[in-house]
Write a structure and sequence with these properties.
The structure holds two protein chains of two kinds. By secondary structure, chain A is mainly α. Chain A contains ten helices and no strands. The two termini of chain A are about 15 Å apart. By secondary structure, chain B is mainly α. In chain B, about 55% of the residues are buried. Classes of the chains: A mainly alpha, B mainly alpha.
Chain lengths: ~250, ~250
Amino acid sequence: MLLPMDPSLTVLLYASGAALASVPGGLVRWTPGDRRHAWIGWAHALSAGGMLGAAFVLTAVPEVPAVPAAVGGVLGVIFIVLSHTLTGAGSVDLSRPDAGDPSHGYRLVLIHMLHACTEGVAIGVAMAVDLSLGVFVALAIAVHNIPEAVILAAATRDLGFGRRGTVGLAVLSNLGQPLLALTTWVVVAALPSALSWALGLAVGALLNLVLTELLPSSYREAGSKSIALVASVALGLVVLLGGVLP
Amino acid sequence: MMSVALVFAYGLATALATGLGALPFAFVRTVSDRTVGRLNALASGLMLGASFGLLAEARRFGGWQTFIGVILGVLFILAANRFLEERHVHPGAGSAGASEGKEGLRRMVLIVTVMTVHSFAEGVAIGTSFGGGMALAAFITVAIAVHNIPEGVAISAVLRSNGVGTARCAGWSIVSSLPQPLMAVPAFLFVEAFAPALPYGIGFAAGAMVFMVLLEVLPEAYGQGSAREIGAITSVSMIAMILFQRMVGS
């Protein structure tokens, strides 16, 4: 899975790959209808389980001191809460491309840009612990980027963007992933004591994203039983795959 | 014979510790809808955090065993849920209030069942730890006893929000941990037979707990408060539980 190259290039390559996973999602022409809502709910549940799994794999890194990591975790939660409050994007329903409000599509782009930043920190910090762990977290986030792009594309199409525009915006909203992955990786490499803080921050932000946004909107789309099933099995699979790593 | 009694006593001590989780609820007089949502969020975070601890423990024995255990745990809750639905909830029967009460009852039975099932694995852990000497056994027992207190909080949060009194919350918390002394003794006597089953058992407990939270406790919490508040409480209590387990475990 790992190519022989400079580690910083590995970080950049895989984080960019994760961001580019939004391209196929942006090309899917999805129009919200009653029956298709269930599909989008399951896709969200899949990424919720995957991101819970990524958070688990990060918390299971044994050599990280627990207290600074937990403080970082609480800071991560506060970061997501604050960023939503400050941008006025806290009430945006992620699974609805149209809310009768023309600013909804733009808010969706903004909120995804903020998410992408915390996801970038998660990739970078995982890369700093171990490159193959980082590749693994990048893969989990890539999977999550696909349904996210499907909804974003539907919303931006409503704003009058063509196919290139929708795909371009989907990729642009994930720009924070490679940028913050590389920044985090460089900072942690230069300042090893920052690792536990950054790791905690990433875990706290991932957990809060799953619990504040992905799960509530997926429950609305597909009901609790199928969502619980998809998310639990996805979590189990990620734990299984994460166990293969050193 | 003396040592069997000792193993049982250690297991019983951890079970009684679970009852301490009901204590904070002695100071809460009335429970509003909003408080119920917050309590459910707290319970979700504590249980998700606990299942992260269980997964980390089970994974040391083998990933596939853990995964199979998780799937079996999910299937177990699905089956238990269907069984309870068939017995207690008949759509259309009774007033809205009565069916709501039955929903609450089903949820309470499920959480006590899940916690009881996961105590089996902990009981086995106590019993097998005696094979590593008294010091290890004492340490593991204290660790599990302390770890049981927030689990008691989780159970009591769900029970209390359904109108159950504090003493009964403590009682059910202790009942949910009774498999600990009961399983510790056979696990101590037949360590070799029990050890290979541990990763499946712990994975089972984790899968059942995660699925229970995602199926019942979280959706209810989202219905009682804003997603932002519920999400933040759940995330922070989950982080606290993970920290707590790391501190007790290291």
